[in-house]
Input
Amino acid sequence: MSAVGFCGPWVILTCDKKLCAAHRKEADREPFVFDCSTAEKKPKNRKDESSSDGGPSEETGSDKVLAFAVSPSGKLLALTDDTKRLVLFSCEPSWHCVSIRWVVRRCTSLVFTQAEDELLVADKSGDVYSFSVAEPQKEGELKMGHLSLLLAVTTSLDDKYIITADRDEKIRVSHLRSPHSIQSFCLGHCQFVSALQIPSGHPHWLLSGSGNPTVCRISSSTDGQLVAVQCERVSTVQVFTLAQEEKLVPHSRISLPHCPLDVNFDLEGRLWVLMDSSDAPLQIYSLTQGCWEVAAHDPDLSRVTEAFRPHWEPLEASMRTNNRFEQLHKVSFDNVAVYLQKKQQRLEEQQLKRSAAQTANGNKKAKKEAD
Output
């Protein structure tokens, strides 16, 4: 997964097996780089929880970063990788790894609670685990389970609800402290639900995106006025405004020179775009008099780009990976057409047999009359 985000004054970039952080304002601050391929390995004497039921364990992971999340205060960051690590970082007063724990299944999404006391992790088997932030060495506890692969998880801004989205077109709203109690289901999607977002300043809004075409990112500005929507393999970003009448209104469309890998608003309302390009993978777009313009000479972009430059090579490799939602689209199977075709063939065969029988009977009758 290649993604861009923000942790306080730090710009975060994940590319292949690395997480990189560069300070936006202070050029003398050393970038922080965490390489999952050189991180702590799972102890060999530790039983693999994924095979606790007697079944075969999952294959060895590739150490690629699958997802990351930033705490509401911007002081903490967590990532999960393909080797089933869950790594917790603190960025104040300087970057350091707080803990490395292990998840049961490969994760698809994670989120901090607003109180920052829990880290909620959703995995591909449909389970959500809760990991303590105050006790960073404590193992995760099963929070809730689903019958379908989970693709996104978030919490309401008051920490009252946990919201999960799955492969089977459903969004479930459950009580965070008692997840067995389901508040409601949000239905209406016709494909897997791939993205969730509660925009800033709109605590009662829930934005969601799904497949066909696949919405892979929904990002809202810090003032809650703009929403950017990125779709898989589409070289544009659609921007909406949140009207006071509780409507999502199309605002503008940003045409990009390459397909975006990820988009995210910074604290100033500028849109950072990570693109499928080796020349200039990172760009900033600013809204000026109703039009989006590229901030090509922005000093923040220059500092961040210079810090990330040594890590562009693994980023380029990650760009060549397949669409991560490719296997989730429903495959339609029209067995009615096949049935009707076979039925027509049977009718035609029966008609041929009747015609042949009638012809044979006619020949026999004619022969008897001739005798």
Summary: The chain has three helices and 26 strands.
